[in-house]
Amino acid sequence: MTTPSTPAASATGEMTSLIPRRGVRALLPTSVPYAWPLWALLVLYPVWWLLGLGTFIYPIAAIPMGIYLLRHRPIKVPPGFGIWLLFLVWFCCSIIMLRVNPPGTYGNPGNLRIAVVGLRFVLYLSVTVMLLYVGNLTERQLPRTTLVRWLAVAFLITVAGGLLGMFWPTFGFASPVELMLPQSISENNYVQSLVHPNSAQVHAVLGDPSPRPAAPYGYTNVWGTNLSLLLVFFVVAWWVYGSGLRRLAAIGLLGLAMVPTIYSLNRGMWIGIGLTILYVAARLAARGRLWVVGGLTVGLTVAGLVFLLSPLHTIFAERLSNGHSNRIREFTTEKVVEVSRQSPIIGFGNTRNAVGSAQSVAVGRTAECQECGNPALGSNGQVWMVLISQGYVGLALYTLFFVYGILRYWRDLTPIGLSGVLILLLSLLYNFYYDALVTPLGFFMLAYALLWRNDIEHARAARRVKLRPRHRRLMARSAAARPA
User: Fold this and answer.
1) What is the DSSP letter of 172?
2) Which of 121, 35, 120, 132 is nearest to 80 (CA)?
């Protein structure tokens, strides 16, 4: 790596280096910290959301990340990366089935389908570049604790978006990106979810239509997934690595976050948070940290009493007794499994629309059947999207990459190690009923990168400890050999 010529303050004050203007280096400004693309992506995400770039900021940010990687070859790759690379290759192979509509499905096999698949592949490549970028930065260029703090800021942004969706559910406008698109494209429902900022989605989950927080993401389910993932990093940054005042503030902020968490009516997120608590308690108990488990139990008891004495518990109970989306999920899941049998190895390259729905075999939504409308097969979870798109082989490769990460880093008992493994475990859970592209998958990859970086730094520290006695012996011999 070329040595920087002059120092410069970074976004957090923790990284100091300039990028010399030499060859390709001239493509970037001369006084920016190495990790500025990641900081811009995470901390400035509300800005990109308001501009209509919430999804597209990942491939945009991947450009300077990729330039950095090309300038600082050879590029290191994480353990298990070959599995992920094979998945990307399998993705490309599945494209040959794009024009095939299996029985029981329909869809336009034209340019729109090709564009959606192209965007999906670009998003996969973007998070891949981000994984390699973070892993190839040094501890001086991007300290691991700094990245955890940036992710904690993303958690606060998500909480703020949830509160915005609760108290201003009608907030929404045509973004600059949306205004630049042709009307025939911008009116597409999928495109709307990408470029049209909305603070909430309105669903009749409990009978009457009610808003569910979504900002600064396109869907309520994505908001819930990201909140539960970023919650882990927030606790590490503000509680484990935080001071007394920051820990007190963390308690208040977590209490505040509980409000949109309940109002989102997101059962999957509730399950994820419950499993997070059980995981932390089990891992700490296994290490003999029973006093921490006791403190966690007391804190949860107090939080539970506050919850029961508030109106939140009524909403929680009503949601558990009302399986609003169960029938749709069952229908789409069964249909995906049925359709995938017709191309089990390579899939169909992309999702398809089902003929009919769980309520009716009618084609399209009508006044009599508002729930009709031919649901997209694979839209009810990453597992099902990969299964119908890349077949069982693609699904096995996708899942095996994260399973390998869990097994590889399970013994890392540091706060970053425990939290990183937890995020990968949650990825296996959420993939069954939530889509991962693009922000959840980005957080999965950042957790993988943190585990990878943590392992590298621990190995370096172990080598230093191992070499220290030898260094002392050499120093002693050198001193003894000097003339009196």
Assistant:
1) B
2) 132
Per-residue burial over 186-221, b = 16 or more CB atoms within 10 Å of its CB, e = otherwise? beeeebebbbbbbbbbeeebeeeebbbbbbbbbebb
- What is d(CA 411, CA 201) in angstroms, rounded to the nearest whole number? 41
Structure confidence by residue, pLDDT tens digits, 139-166: 999 999 999 999 999 999 999 999 999 9
Q: Which residue has the higher pLDDT, 220 or 312?
A: 220
Average pLDDT, the chain: 82
Beta strands in 84-197 (DSSP E): 105-106
The residue behind tokens 């070329």 is 2
pTM assigned to the model: 0.84
Residue 70 has pLDDT above 60, yes or no: yes
Quote the CA–CA distance of 46 and 10 in Å, as a whole number.
21
Residue 353 near residue 377 (C-beta atoms within 8 A): yes
How far are the Cα atoms of 199, 370, 382, 434, 436 from residue 423, in angstroms, in the given order? 26, 37, 16, 15, 13
The CA radius of gyration of the chain, in Å to the nearest whole number, is: 24
- Looking at residues 261-274, what average pLDDT do you find? 86
Task: List, in order, residues 6 or more apart from 97 with CB less than 8 Å away.
Answer: 343, 346, 347, 348, 349
For residue range 161-189, what is the model confidence (pLDDT) as tens digits?
Answer: 999 999 999 999 999 999 998 888 888 77
Q: At what angle do helices 439-481 and 144-167 cross, to 10 degrees?
A: 160
Encode the chain in three state secondary structure: CCCCCCCCCCCCCCCCCCCCCCHHHHHCCCCCCCCHHHHHHHHCHHHHHHHCCCCCHHHHHHHHHHHHHHHCCCCCCCCCHHHHHHHHHHHHHHHHHCCCCCCCEECCCCHHHHHHHHHHHHHHHHHHHHHHHHHHCCCCCCCHHHHHHHHHHHHHHHHHHHHHHHHCCCCECCCHHHHHCCHHHHCCHHHHHHHCCECEEEECCCCCCEEEECCCCCCHHHHHHHHHHHHHHHHHHHHHCCCHHHHHHHHHHHHHHHHHHHHCCCHHHHHHHHHHHHHHHHHHHHCCCHHHHHHHHHHHHHHHHHHHCCCHHHHHHHHHCCCCCHHHHHHHHHHHHHHHCCCCCCCCCCCEEECCCCCCCCCCCCCCCCCCCCCEECCCCHHHHHHHHHHHHHHHHHHHHHHHHHHHHCCCCCHHHHHHHHHHHHHHHHCCCCCCCCHHHHHHHHHHHHHHHHHHHHHHHHHHHHHHHHHHHHHHHHHHHCCC
